[in-house]
Amino acid sequence: MPEPEFATPLVVLDLTGIFFFAVAGALVAVRRNLDLFAALVLGGVTGLGGGMIRDVLIGATPPAALADWRYLLVPVVAGLLTFAFHGAVGRLERVVTLFDAFGLALFCVTGALKAVEYGLGPLPAALLGMVTGIGGGMIRDVLAGSVPVIFEGVLYATPALAGALVAVLLDRADLPFAVVATGGFATCLGWRLLALVRGWRAPLPKGPANV
Amino acid sequence: MPEPEFATPLVVLDLTGIFFFAVAGALVAVRRNLDLFAALVLGGVTGLGGGMIRDVLIGATPPAALADWRYLLVPVVAGLLTFAFHGAVGRLERVVTLFDAFGLALFCVTGALKAVEYGLGPLPAALLGMVTGIGGGMIRDVLAGSVPVIFEGVLYATPALAGALVAVLLDRADLPFAVVATGGFATCLGWRLLALVRGWRAPLPKGPANV
Amino acid sequence: MPEPEFATPLVVLDLTGIFFFAVAGALVAVRRNLDLFAALVLGGVTGLGGGMIRDVLIGATPPAALADWRYLLVPVVAGLLTFAFHGAVGRLERVVTLFDAFGLALFCVTGALKAVEYGLGPLPAALLGMVTGIGGGMIRDVLAGSVPVIFEGVLYATPALAGALVAVLLDRADLPFAVVATGGFATCLGWRLLALVRGWRAPLPKGPANV
């Protein structure tokens, strides 16, 4: 399999996903009244952090995001636009959430397949696909001083893990790349959108916790 | 020295340590009323995070935990059990703390020896042994939104550093593996249990801080 | 270019920068009434964390700080001194801030040049120079339970990025090392000191955020 990050049509998809992740990240900075630098860092970390964790863990250093200037430029542009026009961007949040789901579905698949390419087994590869999708947002939330939002019932990681697992299994069945990618992508996106529309939540602990 | 992680008797010990670390991690999630996914992540991070930091720093990628499915399965099982039966598990906390001390003593030794194997000097190797033991819990606390508990007087890191240092020094003296491992393990476990029983605490700053 | 970290004059500068970073880090621990271990960890992380992130990202493992015992000793000494004499150190905070600016200017340059040496392009190399300067302090703040101070208007990262960028560009122009280093160093230090003296701040978002 060729490096998926650098094939032209996939790069456009990839950069689009990063752009919307970065917008969501920069919005967090603005809403906590953090400065421009924070908007750029939280945007960049949200857009690129998951892939960087994956690349460091599989030994693919320097990470793809540091080897191609477009991957650095896109979150900077997203951060600047969000910082400048945060009022308008904030009102478009439903759109941002939609595109964010698209980015999640994309990253869980490309992340898992990259891990497979580096020789990881199906279970770790699926896990790293999920990490590619959710890792950036988790670092963002920690840097912004809060518990990751996906720890409090938001159904976000499970669709990413499911999409990654479907992609890995289809890939092991030696199906063509288009089938592998579409299967994983549709699984994650469908589940995530259903969760958004129907208000599905992850289970919370039952009964009082013995503190 | 062979890969200590994959020799059968050591693997059983290792997985036992990871299991109890993961139980302690998942309990933190339940007590903050976080969701099932958080219990799995905090369990996994507590059990595997320290070893992952060590492996990334010494260049042993992908980390051992991503190369053997048992290392992923154990924290998942621990997290699910803790989430489902958190009342019972919480009442057994003294048992969890005991086994956690056992895990700490084990990880500081295996972590330090792995660093030695990768060519690090005695001081950095001992430090990485300590990181293997305490790193996962520190990430867990940060993800759960609090200052690491071992920053507030809990005597936990010092025994780990001492155990790692003893193991590294005995290893340099070319003693047999059983002596090396037992010496480091007993140092850490003994100190940690004494600290628990006698209520020893790490020193806090004296006098008012000029804020 | 030889390894800049191990040439004698640069090592002394480097260790001096790490010392003052570590003092600033340990002060944070004391002011939150954290224990001695926290002072050592926050000191060590502030002094060495940025370089470690850089080294892990460019694949230079084990990081330089784990290959030379002096790099471990210096933050330990800084942490112990700060913990013991925090009253006096706290009153000298203006001096610490001055030396911290010196460390920032040094690390952004050495960090960027090391990234260039490992084959990164100008933009990622400059970014990693900035990360070398600011990364340790960011981890420190997160571990201490707060949002990084450089997210709330402190003008700290921009001078580091500027200094790193100047060094990278001068290096690409094949100028002698002394010119490259001095140019980057002076850019960062001058900007940072002006920001301190004149009270310059990074821009905050305008208008109310749609929460």
Q: In words, what does this structure look like?
A:
The structure is a homotrimer of 211-residue chains. Chain A is mainly alpha-helical and 211 residues long. Chain A has one domain. Helix content of chain A is 73%, strand content 0%. Chain A has 8 helices and no strands. The N terminus of chain A is likely disordered. Chains in contact: A-B, A-C, B-C. At the A-B interface, helix 2 and helix 6 of A face helix 1, helix 2, helix 3 and helix 4 of B.
Describe the structure concisely.
Chains A, B, C: Belongs to the UPF0126 family. Three copies of one chain form a homotrimer. Chain A has 211 residues and is mainly α.
Could you outline the blueprint of secondary structure elements for this entry?
The structure is a homotrimer of 211-residue chains.
Chain A (H helix, E strand, L loop, with lengths): L7 H24 L4 H23 L10 H16 L1 H6 L1 H25 L4 H22 L13 H16 L4 H22 L13
Low-confidence stretches of chain A: 1-6
Rg of chain A (C-alpha, Å): 17 Å
Task: Quote the average pLDDT of chain A.
Answer: 92
State the helicity of chain A in percent bands. over 70%
Assess the beta-strand content of chain A as a share of residues.
Answer: under 5%
Oligomer: homotrimer
Let me know the number of strands of chain A. Answer: 0
Characteristics of this structure?
homotrimer, 211 residues, mainly alpha, disordered N terminus, membrane (chains A, B, C)
